[in-house]
Amino acid sequence: MCGIFGFVSKEKINATPVIIDGLKRLEYRGYDSAGLAAVTSRGIFMRKKAGRISELEKVTNADVVSNTAIGQNRWATHGKPSDKNAHPHFSCNKKIFLVHNGIIENFKELKDKLIRQGHKFTSDTDTETVAHLIENFENKGASFEEAVRLALKSIIGTYAFTIIHADNPDTMIVARNSSPLLVGFSDTHKFVASDASAILPHTRKVVYLHDGEFAILTPSDFRIATFDRKAVSRGHELIEWSQDEVKKNKFPHFMLKEIYEEPEAVENAIRGRLIIKDGLAKLGGLESVENRVKRLNRLIISACGTAYLAGLTGEYMIEEYGGIPVEVEYASEFRYKKHKFDAKTALLSVSQSGETADTLGVLKEAKRKGVLNLGLVNVVGSSIARETDAGVYNHAGPEIGVASTKAFVSQLAVLSLLGLFIGRQRDMSLVMGRRIASELAALPGKMRRVLKEAPNIKKLARKYHKYDHFLYLGRKYNYPVALEGALKLKEISYIHAEGYGAGEMKHGPIAMIDKNFPSMVMVPSDSIYEKVLSNIQEIKARSGKVIAIATEDNKEISKIADDVIYIPKTLEMLTPMLSVMPLHLFAYYIGVMRGYDVDKPRNLAKSVTVE
């Protein structure tokens, strides 16, 4: 949620195009307004507008010469989307300007106190409070740096701040607490951003700020300290992916590009991690805790959104092949439960960004209780990656589309590896281990065959895109896939869609079935095929339309379902990585046919960094 970008430069440049470009690269995170501020010879220039960045461009001067500038895409939390509530916010004397991602929990108390002391507020946001708070400390004699530090010590909440000052034109101060922020370094500039995609066009050399730290950036200096003034020394890291990976290339949308990258995402997730002849999964990130994993008798998977659905699939995989009980919890609910942990329990936090606020909150609570903390994230150096005891990256590469596609299948691939890893530690036979490893290795090729069905799926989308309700059904491994398909259709096309376990259809959803309520049914040739077939017959008996996702060479299904999309045969535990691909394509095509921006669906954010 939200996106911060800024720079400090050795030379004065036209700041507007640099900031605007950075903000555009952060659009996928979600926003409802945008703004920028730059230190100039005549004070601080600021413009901000509700709506898209294009609205900001209309009111921003072409030439704003500066060597220190900041910008932000805002996602409203306090105060509705409007020009006045857009960032940056400023102090009474209009010398201190800042942008902020996060939530200040004690802003009301601070704001009331500042108003009593004579401060005038111009917005409805929590963020503006901090600009006045810094000014208040300066009025008492504190330097810019010390005033910021004292303000940070006074506030409670989650935040990433970028702050500039008219009287300190070469200085930017940034701070972080539970909201991502990194600094990039080129020969002439220092850049600050919420994530690497905005910095990558300028440099691959970065430093990630940790919670409870602030940094001072000038053209010639960079210092990090804790809020208690302790100096921090941290070396540079290199961003692993390239600028080309965050371009659409030949595709009209990032979402379609990323669906077509799903086979490659699985290849990257399993590369170097399979020893087929020994039937083993080699997960280097877990080597340091391998003996503790071997002793586990309980695994809790904590996640939100699509990652939660990946976790549900992982539950089936790990319980069946790893032989240990697995619980999957919405992080947003689990963190408020009175849960009990013991020495043989592990928590697995699953998050594409590695910054999901609720998932991170559960992790920190479990860490305080001494639980083994494992992570499955896509973004290297993210908060979850740093906080866990051990973990595995899914290596899906940058995912720009708000609706997760390739990250989802790569999470499934890693969870399959984890099931194999734990299973071979325990009772899984060499024969079964080899079979799983072989089928996993063959999966990317089979996924590419599914992509060849895209023209057929597009035709089906054309046929069904005017329907306003859909039911998605699946059983066992494909129950979470049904949930994922329904979620994607809701996210991308704003169509009402329900996902259910097929066995639950008779317990309510069947009441909705008629000719105007199509059903998408996962019916691969697996251990519960006959039961799902019976569910389809029940739908057809009530004049319902059925689109079936079925295994190649199934001649029976075409005689029953209205339409069929075929997928290759694989192990039952691996079918979700094949059966979900048509659902992603179907949602994409319907969203496009309905005229929506599928890369930036309304009201959604790529990285949910507030609770």
From TrEMBL:
The record's subunit annotation is: Homodimer.
* Molecular function GO terms recorded: carbohydrate derivative binding; glutamine-fructose-6-phosphate transaminase (isomerizing) activity
Q: State the EC number(s).
A: 2.6.1.16
> This chain belongs to which protein, by name?
Glutamine--fructose-6-phosphate aminotransferase [isomerizing]
Kindly report, in one word, the top-level EC class recorded for this enzyme.
transferase
For biological process, the GO terms are: carbohydrate metabolic process; fructose 6-phosphate metabolic process; protein N-linked glycosylation; UDP-N-acetylglucosamine metabolic process
Q: Which organism is it from?
A: Candidatus Yanofskybacteria bacterium RIFCSPHIGHO2_01_FULL_45_42
Alphabetized UniProt keyword annotations = Aminotransferase, Cytoplasm, Glutamine amidotransferase, Repeat, Transferase
Task: Establish whether keyword Transferase is in the entry.
Answer: yes
**Active site per UniProt:** 2 (nucleophile), 606 (for fru-6p isomerization activity)
